[in-house]
């Protein structure tokens, strides 16, 4: 790959993206427009995340890439290969071994540490988009901190259904100021964002926006005093490793309604099973 | 016993191998050459260059071959290559008035200085399948005498619209100062309201089908702008660059373009008397449908500037400019096939809770 620069992007482009990242870190939750480039992978496949990762990755980084919590899903494999090919960095599946984690739709179960960066792939960065399709309007709403429409929507959900009808990409307020989409992670993962010691970067390639949650920043999932925010719970543990209090994938095992529930985080699950095997000779 | 799905890596490798096999097709049939594509599928090459924003017939042909004829995929390939190229300067505006014409027609006047030149067009063909083309070597044009012109097309031919301009019947259009920086939608994110430079770039890269439908919608009453094809011209123009160290323009390329200048009615406003207004379309190669659709949409999007009330999709700047790009659209539509089982699981949990509470 000598025809391409380290991590594919040229240094000028990396610099432009790093400037956007710095601004994003300085204004937590604010969506910074950036000159998103056309990447050699399809829009919707993580072009924003890939650009952010390419701009912050260095030769000494250890990279982990997950999709749906798993290291072995096809798109995670494809993005990992892209960075192996263009940077030659070491990759890992172990959350605590990685210095840089690119993710789609999950935050690992293993707690993140202060020296880690997590890059989220974002399809639609604008939390107000389903309430107001126009970018010119939503930018003004953010500037004026005019988030009443979102509160009304949540209130209407509760009066109609008894619950907020958002299961993933659940809106949060960052640092007490900006309303932010946490990307389509299940709301189960929202509490992990709050005061997270790692740097969280969000890249939306097609929509040309970058935003960030700096380490130890408050991230509050929207709720009401009498309807506190809750996360998904399962009435059984992981069928493979026995973990509870983690996000479980539902696997259909036959055509007679058979189901099993297993950890969505494949690294977490595999290591628990390994540890278990080691204990029982 | 369920085993977590493994082997994504092997599956991807296999998929690429199958793709290569399908691309090649029957090995008994000779492989396509790029010269055949650039020489015989010229309009496909033109579209890929236009929407790929890169004037290079050879690369466009390679992209078409690699994409197995899927032009949107070819456009994507060319764009992903283009984005790696350094931008070392901005050319001078091309002078379409100085174009070496291959085709030039005006629908607004029976005859115009320089004449109407039909050129190579499908317009008056009868769409009957030509079975002589089915077998190589039976093409009736093989060995036929080159068509000759009654008179040589000499010198620059004035643009029809400039003739109206002289009489003040059409809004004047003054070029920006050369020193004024030009927007580059491939380097900067769109901001609204978009300048006309950014808008025209966006439309030039925009999907032909999308612009065609939008342009058509204006003709059917959704933002009607009473268009006339003032002039359509196709031909070769020089691309000039002024290198800083030289200080004067040098020609760096000759490219083929299609230009469409629409003349549109305008009833006038409080600030301006009634006069004709303009819509502009430009595309690489021979791309008349694209250039005409682009001109209709450009005019529709000028509604605010002309104090017309925007009420239709084609007049809605954010709607048009955010959805015109087929590489973005194709990617985002198709990303739905990526795994979404975590989000789906969240929805299942919520739905089961709601149904349990409803006693269903």
Explained architecture:
The complex is a heterodimer of chains A (281) and B (360). Chain A has 281 residues and is an alpha/beta fold. Chain A has helices spanning 11-26, 47-56, 74-87, 135-143, 148-161, 190-193, 266-279, and strands at residues 32-33, 62-67, 90-91, 100-104, 117-121, 172-174, 178-180, 199-204, 209-213, 219-221, 248-252, 259-263. In chain A, strand 2 (62-67), helix 3 (74-87) and strand 3 (90-91) form a beta-alpha-beta unit. Chain A is globular, with a radius of gyration of 19 Å. The model of chain A has no long low-confidence stretch (mean pLDDT 95). With 360 residues, chain B is of the alpha+beta class. In chain B, helix 2 packs across helix 4. Chain B has helices at 8-24, 34-40, 42-52, 57-66, 71-82, 160-166, 196-205, 208-219, 288-301, 317-323, 326-334, 341-357; strands at 100-105, 227-241, 250-264, 277-284. In chain B, strand 2 and strand 3 form a beta hairpin. The interface between A and B is large, with 66 and 49 residues.
